[in-house]
Write a structure and sequence with these properties.
Layout lengths: L5 E6 L6 E6 L2 E6 L4 H15 L3 E3 L6 H11 L17 H13 L6 E2 H7 L6 H9 L12 E2 L12 H10 L9
Parallel strand pairs: 1-4, 5-6
Antiparallel strand pairs: 1-2, 2-3
Helix pairs in contact: 3-5, 4-5
């Protein structure tokens, strides 16, 4: 699949530097812990998957996603309702992530099993966990809102401390003391 343009940038956030990338279709990638190594590796991998050479730029395609993420981290409960490019996910994972993006609003959580049921695959809680781990758009497609049925946090690709901070930001957990 060829994409006309891919722009990327690294922006600071309350959970550390985020790698953002967008195509003409929408935001395509959000990555946590965007250190120097990832800043070098991710654009090349992204380019090979999307069929276009990513260009570092924090305007144009990324201007609105950056603005909306800044508002989100400032505590604005406005949904991160942005155009998304789903090119980096397919099949059941895409189905689950789309349900998560549209069906689990700010300030709420859902269990892995419940999300599996909503995606039409009751009993596929483990597969939902795998879909969360493969989410190319964390924060915007809010995999941090998926928790265990017993109230445990479950896993999180950005690390459990990042998940705790995002849930605290949304009022679902007490804010960290430090």
């Amino acid at each position: 699949m060829d994409i006309e343009a891919v722009e990327w940038a690294v922006v600071e956030s309350d959970v550390g530097p985020l790698f953002l990338a967008a195509t003409g279709r929408g935001l395509v990638r959000v990555g946590f812990h965007a250190d120097a190594v990832r800043r070098e590796q991710v654009p090349d991998r992204l380019g090979s998957r999307l069929g276009a050479e990513p260009v570092e730029r924090a305007s144009g395609l990324l201007a609105e996603p950056i603005r909306r993420l800044e508002r989100y981290f400032a505590g604005d409960p406005d949904e991160l309702d942005l155009p998304l490019d789903w090119s980096l996910t397919a099949g059941f994972n895409r189905q689950v992530l789309r349900e998560l993006a549209t069906g689990v609003p700010y300030g709420t959580v859902v269990g892995y099993g419940e999300l599996a049921r909503r995606a039409g695959q009751p009993g596929a809680a483990q597969a939902v966990g795998a879909a969360m781990g493969a989410n190319p758009l964390p924060v915007v497609v809010p995999c941090h809102r998926v928790v265990e049925s017993d109230g445990g946090l479950g896993g999180f690709g950005g690390g459990l401390e990042t998940k705790r901070r995002l849930l605290a930001l949304e009022g679902m957990l007490p804010a960290p003391l430090f």
